[in-house]
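Customer escalation, tier 2.

The customer says the design service returned an amino acid string that "doesn't look like it belongs to this structure." They asked us to rerun it and document both sides in this ticket. The original structure tokens are below, unchanged.
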């Protein structure tokens, strides 16, 4: 066995291995693609172990608690760091998905599940379309690799065993959840504006012609107009997602600075 591998598997390195694996596990629990329900747990556990072994040579001198009872708190801190790093990318994908669900609700497609001939079968929606679009762009731009790079850089900024600032972590989590809703609004803005104008026009028409059943007329108009505007806006939404994913390194750096003690 070579000297680097021999040093890696020294008994004194196992607490450091546990701390790094907790940080990697937090990333796997939250980051897009890695946290997909379709990914078997055994595969995810194998990826955690493999990434931890690859990152171990990059770990600087770590502050490992001497007592075993003092280890759970550093493990929780490492898990929180990994969760925050994964959350920086998750808010982009989940935000675009949430925007699609808002569009589906405004168009009236949310009633598809209730009116379907087979209610036990889930009906596809605009949210699923935008979720797949966001995931494909995220993978094609290399967002999953950016997060792993950010995880490796975090080992130098916050060495394992250093307790992060929980107050700063709370502020970062609140800001990321705010980013989730702002991303959803920006992804759904074109269709929301078009449907708002259409609903105003239908309301004025209903006032002018009381005999007109505005509800029956609005469904085909909102669905048709929504699908048309969504098709025209998909390139713009894709370009915006590309810009958001390319800004992940700066987002990860900001998160790490906020939780630095």
């Amino acid at each position: 066995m070579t000297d680097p591998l021999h040093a890696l598997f020294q008994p004194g390195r196992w607490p450091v291995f546990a701390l790094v694996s907790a940080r990697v596990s937090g990333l796997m629990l939250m980051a897009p693609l890695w946290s997909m329900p379709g990914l078997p747990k055994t595969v995810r556990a194998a990826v955690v172990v493999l990434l931890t072994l690859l990152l171990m040579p990059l770990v600087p001198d770590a502050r490992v608690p001497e007592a075993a009872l003092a280890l759970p708190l550093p493990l929780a801190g490492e898990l929180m760091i990994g969760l925050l790093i994964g959350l920086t990318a998750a808010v982009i994908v989940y935000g675009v998905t949430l925007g699609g669900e808002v569009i589906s609700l405004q168009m009236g497609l949310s009633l598809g599940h209730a009116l379907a001939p087979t209610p036990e079968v889930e009906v596809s929606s605009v949210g699923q379309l935008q979720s797949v679009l966001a995931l494909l762009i995220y993978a094609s731009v290399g967002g999953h690799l950016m997060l792993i790079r950010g995880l490796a850089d975090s080992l130098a900024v916050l060495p394992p065993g250093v307790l992060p600032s929980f107050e700063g972590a709370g502020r970062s989590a609140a800001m990321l959840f705010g980013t989730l809703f702002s991303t959803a609004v920006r992804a759904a803005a074109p269709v929301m504006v078009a449907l708002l104008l259409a609903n105003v026009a239908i309301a004025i028409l209903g006032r002018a012609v009381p005999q007109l059943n505005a509800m029956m007329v609005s469904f085909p108009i909102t669905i048709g107009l929504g699908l048309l505007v969504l098709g025209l806006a998909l390139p713009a939404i894709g370009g915006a997602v590309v810009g958001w994913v390319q800004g992940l390194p700066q987002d990860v750096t900001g998160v790490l600075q906020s939780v630095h003690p």
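Tier 2 assessment: The sequence is consistent with the input. The chain is about 75% helix and 0% strand. Residues 116-121 have pLDDT under 50 and may be disordered. Sent an explanation to the customer and offered a walkthrough call.
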